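Hey, can you fold this one?
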Amino acid sequence: MSRTGALHHLELWVGDLAAAEREWGWLLGELGYVCADRWRDGQSWRHPTSGYVVLEAGPDRSGDHDRLRAGMNHVAFWAGARADVDRLAAEAPAHGWRLLFADRHPYAGGPDHYGAFLENGEGFEVELVAEA
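Sure. Predicted structure:
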């Protein structure tokens, strides 16, 4: 099977690596990622069956993240069954994430789309999608 088109990795430039590790580390760990590498300004989280996610707070970063400006709006992850999405959405606030579109949750993506939209303290948006 060809990997053409599959995501190789995602690199997120963050303002506060410690906060990112608390927020992203929890979420990525829940989704099956393992911290595979750490260095002074970053860390890499690898998934056993897909790519990896880098969190980096290096000196080349400038400005703050704003998902509403031109650029990437959010990243979406398969999160397992509906019960898994519900559990992650319920636990997320204790780990620095807040539920977006709460008035339409878990169908904020439409009537045939079960998921949770979360935002962390730095304004990154993640969509957790339930498998059908």
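The first helix runs from residue 17 to 30. Let me know if you want another pass with a different chain boundary.
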